[in-house]
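S1.2 Input.
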Amino acid sequence: MSRPRTADPLAGLPVSGPLRLKPWQRAWVAQQLQTLPPRQRLWRLLVLALADGTPERYQSWVEQGVGGVFVPGAPDAHSARLVGHLQSQARQLGRADLLVAADIEFGEHTGADGLGFPNAMAVAATGRVAWARRMGQAAARAARRCGVNWVLSPVVDLDLNPHNPVVNTRSFGTDPARVAAFSRAFVQGLQGEGLAASAKHWPGDGVDWRDHHLEPSCNSLSREAWLARYAPVWRTAIGAGVRTVLCGHIGLPALDGGLSRPASLSPVLSTEWLRGELGFEGLVLSDATLMAGFSACGPRWQTLPQAVAAGCDMLLFSGQPELDVAYLERALAEGRLTWARVNQALARVLALQCVLGLVRRPRHGASVPQAETKQQVEHQAERAQEQQWARECAAAALTRVRDLDGLLPLQPQRHRRILLVEEGERHTPFGQPLPALRMVELLQAEGFAVTRYRPDTLVDPDLYDVLIYVLAREAGMCRVSLRLDWKRLHGDTARAMERHWHNLPHLLISFGNPYHLADASGCRCWINAYSPVPAMQQACVQALLGRAPWPGRSPVEVGAAMAAWGPLR
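S1.3 Output.
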Protein backbone atom coordinates (compact mmCIF):
# COMPACT_ATOMS: atom_id res chain seq x y z
CA MET A 1 0.00 0.00 0.00
CA SER A 2 1.48 3.36 -0.99
CA ARG A 3 2.01 6.01 1.64
CA PRO A 4 -0.89 8.49 1.62
CA ARG A 5 0.19 12.12 1.49
CA THR A 6 -1.71 15.37 1.55
CA ALA A 7 -0.68 18.80 0.31
CA ASP A 8 -1.41 20.19 3.77
CA PRO A 9 -1.05 17.51 6.44
CA LEU A 10 -2.59 19.81 9.06
CA ALA A 11 -5.66 20.69 6.99
CA GLY A 12 -8.71 20.57 9.22
CA LEU A 13 -6.79 20.66 12.49
CA PRO A 14 -8.08 23.68 14.46
CA VAL A 15 -5.72 26.39 15.59
CA SER A 16 -7.97 27.05 18.61
CA GLY A 17 -10.31 25.00 20.76
CA PRO A 18 -9.60 21.99 22.98
CA LEU A 19 -6.85 20.59 20.71
CA ARG A 20 -4.95 23.79 20.00
CA LEU A 21 -1.23 23.18 19.72
CA LYS A 22 2.01 25.03 20.26
CA PRO A 23 4.17 25.58 17.16
CA TRP A 24 6.56 22.72 17.99
CA GLN A 25 3.60 20.40 18.57
CA ARG A 26 2.05 21.31 15.21
CA ALA A 27 5.39 20.57 13.59
CA TRP A 28 5.50 17.17 15.30
CA VAL A 29 1.96 16.33 14.15
CA ALA A 30 2.85 17.39 10.58
CA GLN A 31 5.96 15.21 10.64
CA GLN A 32 3.95 12.22 11.88
CA LEU A 33 1.32 12.74 9.19
CA GLN A 34 4.02 12.79 6.51
CA THR A 35 6.01 9.78 7.69
CA LEU A 36 3.76 7.26 9.44
CA PRO A 37 3.32 4.06 7.39
CA PRO A 38 -0.24 3.48 6.14
CA ARG A 39 -1.07 0.54 8.38
CA GLN A 40 0.19 2.31 11.50
CA ARG A 41 -2.13 5.20 10.68
CA LEU A 42 -5.08 2.83 10.90
CA TRP A 43 -3.85 1.21 14.11
CA ARG A 44 -3.64 4.71 15.62
CA LEU A 45 -7.43 4.98 15.30
CA LEU A 46 -8.06 2.00 17.62
CA VAL A 47 -8.64 2.01 21.39
CA LEU A 48 -8.33 -1.58 22.61
CA ALA A 49 -9.38 -3.04 25.96
CA LEU A 50 -6.83 -4.47 28.37
CA ALA A 51 -9.03 -7.45 29.17
CA ASP A 52 -8.76 -11.19 28.58
CA GLY A 53 -5.40 -10.78 26.93
CA THR A 54 -1.77 -11.43 27.79
CA PRO A 55 1.14 -9.00 28.23
CA GLU A 56 2.58 -10.40 25.00
CA ARG A 57 -0.68 -9.68 23.20
CA TYR A 58 -0.76 -6.11 24.51
CA GLN A 59 2.87 -5.60 23.51
CA SER A 60 2.06 -6.69 19.98
CA TRP A 61 -0.57 -3.95 19.82
CA VAL A 62 2.02 -1.36 20.79
CA GLU A 63 4.41 -2.70 18.15
CA GLN A 64 1.66 -2.40 15.52
CA GLY A 65 1.09 1.23 16.54
CA VAL A 66 -2.19 1.17 18.52
CA GLY A 67 -3.37 4.67 19.42
CA GLY A 68 -4.96 3.94 22.78
CA VAL A 69 -5.90 1.32 25.33
CA PHE A 70 -8.83 1.08 27.72
CA VAL A 71 -8.65 -0.07 31.33
CA PRO A 72 -11.86 -1.98 32.16
CA GLY A 73 -13.59 -1.98 35.54
CA ALA A 74 -12.07 0.13 38.28
CA PRO A 75 -8.41 1.01 37.55
CA ASP A 76 -6.01 0.23 40.39
CA ALA A 77 -2.34 -0.31 41.19
CA HIS A 78 -2.25 -3.40 38.97
CA SER A 79 -3.58 -1.30 36.09
CA ALA A 80 -0.89 1.29 36.75
CA ARG A 81 1.87 -1.33 36.51
CA LEU A 82 0.51 -2.81 33.27
CA VAL A 83 0.03 0.61 31.67
CA GLY A 84 3.49 1.68 32.82
CA HIS A 85 5.00 -1.33 31.09
CA LEU A 86 3.20 -0.54 27.82
CA GLN A 87 4.19 3.13 27.97
CA SER A 88 7.80 2.12 28.50
CA GLN A 89 7.60 -0.09 25.43
CA ALA A 90 6.14 2.77 23.36
CA ARG A 91 8.99 5.05 24.42
CA GLN A 92 11.58 2.42 23.54
CA LEU A 93 10.06 2.40 20.05
CA GLY A 94 10.50 6.18 19.90
CA ARG A 95 6.77 6.88 20.03
CA ALA A 96 4.56 9.15 22.06
CA ASP A 97 2.87 7.73 25.13
CA LEU A 98 -0.41 5.90 24.53
CA LEU A 99 -3.80 7.37 25.22
CA VAL A 100 -5.15 5.40 28.20
CA ALA A 101 -8.91 5.58 28.75
CA ALA A 102 -11.21 4.40 31.52
CA ASP A 103 -14.88 4.80 32.50
CA ILE A 104 -14.48 6.67 35.77
CA GLU A 105 -17.98 7.86 36.62
CA PHE A 106 -17.86 6.87 40.30
CA GLY A 107 -20.65 5.22 42.18
CA GLU A 108 -20.17 1.58 43.03
CA HIS A 109 -19.17 0.21 39.61
CA THR A 110 -16.82 2.73 38.04
CA GLY A 111 -14.42 4.12 40.60
CA ALA A 112 -10.65 4.23 40.51
CA ASP A 113 -7.82 3.60 42.94
CA GLY A 114 -10.29 2.36 45.54
CA LEU A 115 -12.07 5.71 45.82
CA GLY A 116 -15.79 5.33 46.57
CA PHE A 117 -17.12 8.70 45.43
CA PRO A 118 -20.93 9.06 45.05
CA ASN A 119 -22.38 8.90 41.54
CA ALA A 120 -23.52 11.79 39.33
CA MET A 121 -27.13 11.79 40.56
CA ALA A 122 -25.97 12.00 44.17
CA VAL A 123 -23.67 14.88 43.28
CA ALA A 124 -26.55 16.67 41.57
CA ALA A 125 -28.76 16.13 44.64
CA THR A 126 -26.40 18.35 46.66
CA GLY A 127 -27.52 21.28 44.51
CA ARG A 128 -23.96 22.63 44.46
CA VAL A 129 -21.89 22.64 41.29
CA ALA A 130 -18.76 22.79 43.46
CA TRP A 131 -19.25 19.10 44.15
CA ALA A 132 -19.26 18.31 40.43
CA ARG A 133 -15.96 20.19 40.10
CA ARG A 134 -14.47 18.22 42.99
CA MET A 135 -15.85 15.03 41.49
CA GLY A 136 -13.97 15.82 38.29
CA GLN A 137 -10.80 16.63 40.23
CA ALA A 138 -11.05 13.40 42.20
CA ALA A 139 -11.61 11.40 39.01
CA ALA A 140 -8.55 12.96 37.39
CA ARG A 141 -6.27 12.41 40.37
CA ALA A 142 -7.35 8.81 40.90
CA ALA A 143 -7.05 8.17 37.16
CA ARG A 144 -3.55 9.60 36.99
CA ARG A 145 -2.40 7.41 39.88
CA CYS A 146 -3.59 4.40 37.86
CA GLY A 147 -1.86 5.41 34.64
CA VAL A 148 -5.04 6.74 32.99
CA ASN A 149 -4.94 10.02 31.06
CA TRP A 150 -8.39 9.98 29.40
CA VAL A 151 -11.57 9.74 31.47
CA LEU A 152 -14.72 8.78 29.57
CA SER A 153 -16.96 11.07 31.62
CA PRO A 154 -19.10 13.02 32.29
CA VAL A 155 -22.45 11.49 31.35
CA VAL A 156 -24.37 14.50 30.01
CA ASP A 157 -27.55 12.56 29.24
CA LEU A 158 -30.91 13.68 30.60
CA ASP A 159 -32.77 11.14 32.72
CA LEU A 160 -36.12 11.71 31.03
CA ASN A 161 -37.43 8.12 31.03
CA PRO A 162 -37.60 6.35 34.42
CA HIS A 163 -37.70 3.02 32.56
CA ASN A 164 -34.22 3.60 31.14
CA PRO A 165 -31.82 1.35 33.11
CA VAL A 166 -28.55 2.64 31.67
CA VAL A 167 -28.85 6.41 32.37
CA ASN A 168 -30.68 6.91 35.70
CA THR A 169 -28.09 7.38 38.50
CA ARG A 170 -25.28 8.03 35.99
CA SER A 171 -26.99 11.30 35.02
CA PHE A 172 -27.04 14.68 36.75
CA GLY A 173 -30.84 14.59 36.42
CA THR A 174 -33.71 15.75 34.26
CA ASP A 175 -33.28 19.53 34.17
CA PRO A 176 -31.14 20.72 31.23
CA ALA A 177 -29.83 23.76 33.10
CA ARG A 178 -28.70 21.64 36.05
CA VAL A 179 -27.15 18.95 33.87
CA ALA A 180 -25.32 21.58 31.82
CA ALA A 181 -23.96 23.38 34.89
CA PHE A 182 -22.81 20.22 36.66
CA SER A 183 -21.30 18.79 33.45
CA ARG A 184 -19.35 22.00 32.85
CA ALA A 185 -18.00 21.94 36.41
CA PHE A 186 -16.97 18.28 36.10
CA VAL A 187 -15.13 18.96 32.83
CA GLN A 188 -13.36 21.96 34.31
CA GLY A 189 -12.36 20.06 37.43
CA LEU A 190 -11.05 17.07 35.50
CA GLN A 191 -9.29 18.85 32.65
CA GLY A 192 -7.86 21.38 35.10
CA GLU A 193 -5.78 18.46 36.37
CA GLY A 194 -4.33 17.94 32.88
CA LEU A 195 -6.41 14.99 31.67
CA ALA A 196 -9.00 14.67 28.91
CA ALA A 197 -12.71 14.40 29.65
CA SER A 198 -15.24 12.85 27.27
CA ALA A 199 -18.85 14.04 27.28
CA LYS A 200 -21.24 11.19 26.52
CA HIS A 201 -23.40 9.88 24.90
CA TRP A 202 -23.84 11.98 21.74
CA PRO A 203 -26.54 12.93 20.70
CA GLY A 204 -28.18 12.21 24.07
CA ASP A 205 -29.49 9.13 25.86
CA GLY A 206 -32.32 8.96 28.38
CA VAL A 207 -35.42 9.23 26.20
CA ASP A 208 -35.64 5.63 25.03
CA TRP A 209 -36.16 2.75 27.48
CA ARG A 210 -33.70 0.55 25.59
CA ASP A 211 -30.02 0.08 26.39
CA HIS A 212 -27.81 0.56 23.33
CA HIS A 213 -25.48 -2.12 24.69
CA LEU A 214 -28.26 -4.53 23.74
CA GLU A 215 -30.12 -2.81 20.90
CA PRO A 216 -29.80 0.38 18.85
CA SER A 217 -31.70 3.02 20.79
CA CYS A 218 -33.38 6.23 19.73
CA ASN A 219 -33.75 9.76 20.99
CA SER A 220 -37.30 10.26 19.74
CA LEU A 221 -37.69 13.92 20.67
CA SER A 222 -38.84 16.37 18.06
CA ARG A 223 -36.32 18.79 16.61
CA GLU A 224 -37.75 21.59 18.76
CA ALA A 225 -37.68 19.50 21.94
CA TRP A 226 -34.09 18.32 21.33
CA LEU A 227 -32.93 21.87 20.66
CA ALA A 228 -34.60 23.03 23.88
CA ARG A 229 -33.33 20.21 26.10
CA TYR A 230 -30.22 18.49 24.81
CA ALA A 231 -28.62 21.16 22.64
CA PRO A 232 -27.98 23.54 25.60
CA VAL A 233 -26.24 20.75 27.51
CA TRP A 234 -23.98 19.91 24.58
CA ARG A 235 -23.24 23.55 23.86
CA THR A 236 -22.24 24.03 27.49
CA ALA A 237 -19.93 21.01 27.53
CA ILE A 238 -18.32 22.12 24.27
CA GLY A 239 -18.04 25.67 25.56
CA ALA A 240 -16.29 24.33 28.66
CA GLY A 241 -13.56 23.00 26.38
CA VAL A 242 -14.27 19.29 26.66
CA ARG A 243 -11.51 17.62 24.67
CA THR A 244 -13.42 14.57 23.46
CA VAL A 245 -16.98 13.42 22.85
CA LEU A 246 -18.10 9.79 22.99
CA CYS A 247 -20.51 9.08 20.16
CA GLY A 248 -23.37 6.77 21.12
CA HIS A 249 -25.22 4.15 19.13
CA ILE A 250 -28.30 6.32 19.47
CA GLY A 251 -30.42 7.61 16.65
CA LEU A 252 -32.04 11.03 16.43
CA PRO A 253 -34.48 10.92 13.50
CA ALA A 254 -35.66 14.51 13.99
CA LEU A 255 -32.19 15.79 13.00
CA ASP A 256 -31.25 12.99 10.63
CA GLY A 257 -33.91 13.25 7.95
CA GLY A 258 -36.17 10.77 9.69
CA LEU A 259 -33.49 8.06 9.76
CA SER A 260 -33.05 6.08 12.96
CA ARG A 261 -29.43 5.08 12.31
CA PRO A 262 -27.04 5.45 15.26
CA ALA A 263 -25.08 8.68 15.50
CA SER A 264 -21.89 6.60 15.30
CA LEU A 265 -22.86 5.78 11.71
CA SER A 266 -24.45 9.09 10.75
CA PRO A 267 -22.40 11.86 9.09
CA VAL A 268 -25.37 14.17 9.54
CA LEU A 269 -25.35 13.81 13.33
CA SER A 270 -21.64 13.36 14.01
CA THR A 271 -20.21 15.77 11.46
CA GLU A 272 -22.84 18.23 10.27
CA TRP A 273 -24.49 18.69 13.69
CA LEU A 274 -21.78 17.98 16.25
CA ARG A 275 -19.03 19.81 14.38
CA GLY A 276 -20.93 22.11 12.04
CA GLU A 277 -23.86 23.32 14.13
CA LEU A 278 -22.39 22.95 17.63
CA GLY A 279 -18.81 23.79 16.71
CA PHE A 280 -17.02 20.90 18.43
CA GLU A 281 -13.33 20.84 17.45
CA GLY A 282 -12.07 18.02 19.64
CA LEU A 283 -11.77 14.28 19.10
CA VAL A 284 -14.81 12.03 18.59
CA LEU A 285 -14.57 8.51 19.99
CA SER A 286 -17.14 5.91 19.04
CA ASP A 287 -18.87 4.07 21.84
CA ALA A 288 -17.87 0.40 22.06
CA THR A 289 -18.11 -1.12 18.60
CA LEU A 290 -18.82 -4.52 20.18
CA MET A 291 -22.14 -3.28 21.54
CA ALA A 292 -25.29 -4.60 19.89
CA GLY A 293 -26.32 -1.02 19.18
CA PHE A 294 -23.47 -1.02 16.65
CA SER A 295 -23.11 -4.66 15.62
CA ALA A 296 -26.84 -5.01 14.85
CA CYS A 297 -26.56 -2.36 12.13
CA GLY A 298 -24.62 -4.36 9.59
CA PRO A 299 -21.56 -6.54 8.95
CA ARG A 300 -18.43 -5.24 10.65
CA TRP A 301 -16.46 -4.92 7.39
CA GLN A 302 -19.08 -2.35 6.42
CA THR A 303 -19.92 -0.55 9.68
CA LEU A 304 -16.40 -0.05 11.04
CA PRO A 305 -15.15 2.14 8.16
CA GLN A 306 -18.60 3.73 7.95
CA ALA A 307 -18.13 4.98 11.54
CA VAL A 308 -14.84 6.65 10.62
CA ALA A 309 -16.34 8.14 7.48
CA ALA A 310 -19.30 9.43 9.50
CA GLY A 311 -17.08 11.36 11.90
CA CYS A 312 -15.64 9.03 14.56
CA ASP A 313 -11.92 9.73 14.90
CA MET A 314 -11.21 6.67 17.05
CA LEU A 315 -12.96 3.32 17.40
CA LEU A 316 -13.52 1.80 20.83
CA PHE A 317 -12.83 -1.94 21.26
CA SER A 318 -12.20 -4.78 18.89
CA GLY A 319 -12.32 -8.51 19.22
CA GLN A 320 -9.86 -8.91 16.34
CA PRO A 321 -7.91 -5.68 15.76
CA GLU A 322 -5.81 -7.13 12.90
CA LEU A 323 -9.00 -8.01 11.08
CA ASP A 324 -10.52 -4.60 11.80
CA VAL A 325 -7.46 -2.89 10.29
CA ALA A 326 -7.91 -5.11 7.24
CA TYR A 327 -11.55 -3.96 7.04
CA LEU A 328 -10.39 -0.32 7.02
CA GLU A 329 -7.81 -1.10 4.33
CA ARG A 330 -10.49 -2.78 2.23
CA ALA A 331 -12.78 0.24 2.57
CA LEU A 332 -9.94 2.53 1.47
CA ALA A 333 -9.28 0.36 -1.55
CA GLU A 334 -12.98 0.33 -2.48
CA GLY A 335 -13.50 4.05 -1.96
CA ARG A 336 -15.89 3.73 0.99
CA LEU A 337 -13.32 5.53 3.13
CA THR A 338 -10.75 8.11 2.07
CA TRP A 339 -7.21 8.78 3.20
CA ALA A 340 -8.17 12.43 3.63
CA ARG A 341 -10.69 11.42 6.29
CA VAL A 342 -8.22 9.00 7.94
CA ASN A 343 -5.56 11.73 8.09
CA GLN A 344 -8.06 14.16 9.56
CA ALA A 345 -8.93 11.65 12.29
CA LEU A 346 -5.26 10.81 12.84
CA ALA A 347 -4.38 14.50 13.22
CA ARG A 348 -6.84 14.76 16.10
CA VAL A 349 -5.44 11.64 17.75
CA LEU A 350 -1.94 13.06 17.56
CA ALA A 351 -3.12 16.47 18.74
CA LEU A 352 -4.80 14.92 21.79
CA GLN A 353 -1.55 13.18 22.66
CA CYS A 354 0.18 16.55 22.45
CA VAL A 355 -2.23 18.50 24.66
CA LEU A 356 -2.07 15.74 27.29
CA GLY A 357 1.70 15.99 27.46
CA LEU A 358 2.27 12.52 25.99
CA VAL A 359 4.71 13.87 23.40
CA ARG A 360 8.09 14.96 24.72
CA ARG A 361 9.82 17.97 23.21
CA PRO A 362 13.08 16.51 21.91
CA ARG A 363 15.44 19.38 22.65
CA HIS A 364 14.34 19.55 26.26
CA GLY A 365 15.36 15.94 26.83
CA ALA A 366 13.63 13.48 29.12
CA SER A 367 11.88 14.83 32.16
CA VAL A 368 13.41 14.06 35.54
CA PRO A 369 11.19 11.60 37.40
CA GLN A 370 9.92 12.65 40.78
CA ALA A 371 11.42 10.89 43.78
CA GLU A 372 9.25 7.89 44.68
CA THR A 373 8.97 8.81 48.36
CA LYS A 374 7.81 12.34 47.59
CA GLN A 375 5.28 11.01 45.08
CA GLN A 376 3.91 8.53 47.63
CA VAL A 377 3.45 11.31 50.18
CA GLU A 378 1.62 13.44 47.64
CA HIS A 379 -0.61 10.53 46.67
CA GLN A 380 -1.48 9.84 50.31
CA ALA A 381 -2.45 13.48 50.78
CA GLU A 382 -4.57 13.36 47.62
CA ARG A 383 -6.36 10.22 48.76
CA ALA A 384 -7.11 11.67 52.17
CA GLN A 385 -8.63 14.78 50.62
CA GLU A 386 -10.65 12.78 48.10
CA GLN A 387 -12.05 10.51 50.82
CA GLN A 388 -13.04 13.58 52.83
CA TRP A 389 -14.74 15.00 49.76
CA ALA A 390 -16.62 11.73 49.31
CA ARG A 391 -17.92 11.84 52.89
CA GLU A 392 -18.98 15.47 52.67
CA CYS A 393 -20.63 15.03 49.27
CA ALA A 394 -22.55 11.97 50.49
CA ALA A 395 -23.88 13.84 53.51
CA ALA A 396 -24.96 16.76 51.33
CA ALA A 397 -26.84 14.50 48.88
CA LEU A 398 -29.14 12.58 51.25
CA THR A 399 -32.77 13.26 50.36
CA ARG A 400 -35.76 12.60 52.60
CA VAL A 401 -38.49 12.28 49.99
CA ARG A 402 -41.26 11.81 52.54
CA ASP A 403 -41.89 10.85 56.17
CA LEU A 404 -45.67 10.97 56.45
CA ASP A 405 -45.88 9.59 60.00
CA GLY A 406 -42.88 11.37 61.50
CA LEU A 407 -40.95 8.12 61.98
CA LEU A 408 -37.53 9.77 61.89
CA PRO A 409 -35.21 10.06 63.65
CA LEU A 410 -34.76 6.46 64.70
CA GLN A 411 -33.85 5.88 68.32
CA PRO A 412 -32.49 2.67 69.89
CA GLN A 413 -34.86 3.14 72.82
CA ARG A 414 -38.02 3.19 70.64
CA HIS A 415 -36.93 1.32 67.53
CA ARG A 416 -34.40 -1.14 68.91
CA ARG A 417 -35.71 -4.24 67.10
CA ILE A 418 -35.18 -3.70 63.37
CA LEU A 419 -36.23 -6.12 60.64
CA LEU A 420 -34.07 -5.31 57.63
CA VAL A 421 -34.95 -6.46 54.10
CA GLU A 422 -32.34 -6.21 51.39
CA GLU A 423 -31.55 -7.94 48.14
CA GLY A 424 -29.13 -10.87 48.25
CA GLU A 425 -25.84 -11.07 46.43
CA ARG A 426 -25.18 -8.20 44.07
CA HIS A 427 -22.92 -8.16 41.04
CA THR A 428 -21.34 -5.71 38.61
CA PRO A 429 -22.63 -5.68 35.03
CA PHE A 430 -19.77 -8.08 34.24
CA GLY A 431 -20.78 -10.56 36.95
CA GLN A 432 -18.16 -9.81 39.58
CA PRO A 433 -19.55 -9.84 43.14
CA LEU A 434 -20.04 -6.48 44.81
CA PRO A 435 -19.26 -5.93 48.50
CA ALA A 436 -22.10 -6.67 50.89
CA LEU A 437 -23.96 -3.61 52.14
CA ARG A 438 -22.88 -2.48 55.61
CA MET A 439 -26.21 -1.23 56.94
CA VAL A 440 -26.64 -4.12 59.39
CA GLU A 441 -23.29 -3.63 61.07
CA LEU A 442 -23.61 0.17 61.07
CA LEU A 443 -27.01 -0.01 62.81
CA GLN A 444 -25.83 -2.65 65.24
CA ALA A 445 -22.90 -0.43 66.19
CA GLU A 446 -25.46 2.21 67.21
CA GLY A 447 -27.28 -0.13 69.62
CA PHE A 448 -30.01 -1.57 67.39
CA ALA A 449 -30.84 -5.28 67.32
CA VAL A 450 -31.03 -6.03 63.59
CA THR A 451 -32.59 -9.15 62.11
CA ARG A 452 -32.15 -9.95 58.44
CA TYR A 453 -35.37 -10.90 56.68
CA ARG A 454 -35.62 -14.45 55.35
CA PRO A 455 -38.38 -16.02 53.24
CA ASP A 456 -39.69 -17.78 56.38
CA THR A 457 -39.60 -14.68 58.60
CA LEU A 458 -42.80 -13.81 60.46
CA VAL A 459 -43.37 -10.08 60.10
CA ASP A 460 -45.07 -9.25 63.39
CA PRO A 461 -45.25 -5.96 65.37
CA ASP A 462 -44.77 -7.99 68.56
CA LEU A 463 -41.36 -9.07 67.28
CA TYR A 464 -40.07 -5.92 65.57
CA ASP A 465 -40.29 -2.18 66.13
CA VAL A 466 -39.50 -1.00 62.60
CA LEU A 467 -39.16 -2.50 59.12
CA ILE A 468 -36.40 -1.16 56.86
CA TYR A 469 -36.07 -1.91 53.15
CA VAL A 470 -32.58 -1.30 51.76
CA LEU A 471 -32.22 -1.26 47.95
CA ALA A 472 -29.06 -0.71 45.95
CA ARG A 473 -29.59 -0.60 42.18
CA GLU A 474 -27.43 1.86 40.30
CA ALA A 475 -27.68 2.26 36.53
CA GLY A 476 -25.35 0.27 34.33
CA MET A 477 -24.96 -1.60 31.10
CA CYS A 478 -27.13 -4.65 30.30
CA ARG A 479 -29.29 -4.23 33.39
CA VAL A 480 -32.61 -4.51 31.48
CA SER A 481 -34.53 -2.99 34.41
CA LEU A 482 -33.91 -1.15 37.68
CA ARG A 483 -37.43 -1.83 38.94
CA LEU A 484 -37.99 -3.06 42.48
CA ASP A 485 -38.00 -6.87 42.42
CA TRP A 486 -40.47 -7.95 45.12
CA LYS A 487 -39.94 -11.64 44.49
CA ARG A 488 -36.22 -11.29 45.01
CA LEU A 489 -36.76 -9.16 48.11
CA HIS A 490 -39.36 -11.35 49.81
CA GLY A 491 -38.08 -14.70 48.63
CA ASP A 492 -40.86 -16.35 46.63
CA THR A 493 -43.91 -15.62 44.50
CA ALA A 494 -46.47 -15.79 47.31
CA ARG A 495 -44.52 -13.53 49.65
CA ALA A 496 -43.77 -11.13 46.79
CA MET A 497 -47.40 -9.99 47.05
CA GLU A 498 -47.18 -9.13 50.75
CA ARG A 499 -47.05 -5.52 51.92
CA HIS A 500 -46.48 -4.54 55.53
CA TRP A 501 -47.19 -0.82 55.32
CA HIS A 502 -50.02 -1.05 57.89
CA ASN A 503 -48.43 -3.60 60.23
CA LEU A 504 -45.16 -1.94 61.18
CA PRO A 505 -43.51 1.47 61.13
CA HIS A 506 -41.32 1.30 58.07
CA LEU A 507 -38.97 3.11 55.71
CA LEU A 508 -37.40 2.41 52.34
CA ILE A 509 -33.85 3.53 51.54
CA SER A 510 -32.72 3.51 47.93
CA PHE A 511 -28.96 3.59 47.42
CA GLY A 512 -29.57 3.83 43.69
CA ASN A 513 -32.66 4.19 41.49
CA PRO A 514 -34.68 7.18 42.79
CA TYR A 515 -37.99 6.00 41.31
CA HIS A 516 -38.72 3.02 43.58
CA LEU A 517 -41.79 4.71 45.06
CA ALA A 518 -43.61 3.79 41.85
CA ASP A 519 -43.29 0.13 42.92
CA ALA A 520 -43.88 0.84 46.62
CA SER A 521 -46.47 3.59 46.55
CA GLY A 522 -47.84 2.72 49.99
CA CYS A 523 -44.49 3.27 51.68
CA ARG A 524 -44.89 6.05 54.26
CA CYS A 525 -41.20 6.94 54.71
CA TRP A 526 -38.83 7.06 51.77
CA ILE A 527 -35.17 8.05 51.55
CA ASN A 528 -33.16 8.52 48.35
CA ALA A 529 -29.46 8.00 48.91
CA TYR A 530 -28.57 7.42 45.21
CA SER A 531 -25.34 5.40 45.59
CA PRO A 532 -24.25 2.48 47.81
CA VAL A 533 -20.66 3.63 48.26
CA PRO A 534 -19.50 3.25 51.90
CA ALA A 535 -19.48 7.00 52.50
CA MET A 536 -23.17 7.20 51.58
CA GLN A 537 -24.16 4.30 53.83
CA GLN A 538 -22.32 5.87 56.77
CA ALA A 539 -23.85 9.29 56.14
CA CYS A 540 -27.33 7.76 55.85
CA VAL A 541 -27.12 6.09 59.27
CA GLN A 542 -26.03 9.36 60.87
CA ALA A 543 -29.03 11.14 59.32
CA LEU A 544 -31.42 8.34 60.33
CA LEU A 545 -30.35 8.89 63.94
CA GLY A 546 -30.97 12.63 63.70
CA ARG A 547 -27.29 13.57 63.96
CA ALA A 548 -27.28 15.15 60.52
CA PRO A 549 -29.91 16.84 58.32
CA TRP A 550 -31.38 15.70 55.01
CA PRO A 551 -30.10 18.54 52.79
CA GLY A 552 -30.44 16.85 49.39
CA ARG A 553 -33.03 17.74 46.77
CA SER A 554 -34.06 15.26 44.11
CA PRO A 555 -32.46 15.99 40.70
CA VAL A 556 -35.28 14.06 39.02
CA GLU A 557 -38.99 14.83 39.03
CA VAL A 558 -40.16 11.75 40.89
CA GLY A 559 -43.81 12.77 41.21
CA ALA A 560 -44.12 13.73 37.56
CA ALA A 561 -42.37 10.53 36.52
CA MET A 562 -44.79 8.44 38.60
CA ALA A 563 -47.78 10.23 37.13
CA ALA A 564 -46.52 9.53 33.61
CA TRP A 565 -45.03 6.09 34.38
CA GLY A 566 -47.16 4.46 31.69
CA PRO A 567 -46.07 1.72 29.30
CA LEU A 568 -42.55 1.25 28.01
CA ARG A 569 -41.91 3.65 25.18
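S1.4 Remarks. The CA atoms of residues 425 and 431 lie 11 Å apart.
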